[in-house]
Prior knowledge:
The protein is α/β, with parallel strands linked by helices. 33% of the residues lie in helices and 26% in strands. The chain contains ten helices and 14 strands. The chain has a five-stranded mixed β-sheet with strand order 1-7-6-4-5, with helices on both faces. It has a five-stranded mixed β-sheet with strand order 8-14-13-11-12, sandwiched between helices. Strand 13 and strand 14 form a beta hairpin. Helix 3 (51-66) packs across helix 4. Oxa(dethia)-CoA binds at residues 29, 33-34, 37-38, 113, 152-153, 156, 203-204, 206-207, 210, 240-241, 244, 268, 270, 299.
Amino acid sequence: MQGIKIVATGRAxxxxxxxxxxxxxxxxxxxxWIRTRTGIGQRYICENETCTSLAVRAAEKAMEKAGIGKxxxxxxxxxxxxxxxxxxxxxxxxxxALGFPKELMAFDISAGCSGFLYGLGVARGLLLAGxxxxxxxxxxxxxxxxxxxxxxxxxxxxGDGAGAAVISLTEQPYAYRAWADGEAGPLFCxxxxxxxxxxxxxGNQVFKFAVKAIAQGVEAILKDTKMSIGxxxxxxxxxxxxxxxxxVKKKYEGTKTVFYMNMENYANxxxxxxPIALDEMGEKGLLKPGMKMICVGFGAGxxxxxxxxxx
Length: 311
Ligand code: UT7
């Protein structure tokens, strides 16, 4: 089966860092509570940046690293739950800001924190059906716009940021699964026309769902590819909470597989968390040709998905 690979990545963060200590001056919380319950130490929060400007910067870096022409891009796809405008899409703004030619598709997808994983499936479909070699897939979020900074149970969890990936087809091993179940109550944000819309989350329910979703995502890929966990170099999950990932990791103790985590520095950046992690891993020189990784996304919907990618 023809798979996809990530040719190049880029990431963009707002300038302003908000530490746990700073948040503890606004709501009744502590650095110790946040770190032990989530693994989060700080987050980036937009002041002058927007969902679009972050997406543009991340995309520019990924395109530069890929070294490809803008006319080789079949589509710009932005996964986001916090688009600056309900329409036009953030993807169209990126197209204009970076001067992409008009002959391409530009649109956003809404799948909460699973957005990047869903985007991989969408990108593959577009590449198989299209005429050009690349899709520019971006996860960009300005979650601070929908965060209730008086609610300590949610405001400590989220951050702003963007990650972008240039995707192409490959003959290297690939596998993909995606799910949705329509369980909206535990995690939602009111939409268009609702003034002061803020994210609502039942943390415990989402935690239980997340643990199951990651385990199912990893196991499904191993079953489909007949691989063992020992053949996987990295598992890159949506970076929501260290405890969620540690919980799943226990099952695979004794293997060399690394469950990559970076929520300490960025908090939960929703659809941006996986491409930000991939970009950081590339920058650190962790990704060597031929390495295998399973990416797992989960979030509002509930939606979840997993993919085996080869570096
Ligand atoms: O990307 C979307 C996916 N979202 C997630 O993955 C989030 C999943 N859920 C979680 O990560 C966890 O459920 C949380 C981190 C949100 C909460 O952790 P928890 O261990 O489930 O805590 P809890 O909600 O059961 O609350 C325990 C206590 C409560 O106090 P009482 O009732 O025991 O007195 C809360 O009021 O902790 C209290 N609490 C806090 N205390 C200090 C809740 N938030 C805070 C806080 N600081 N920020």
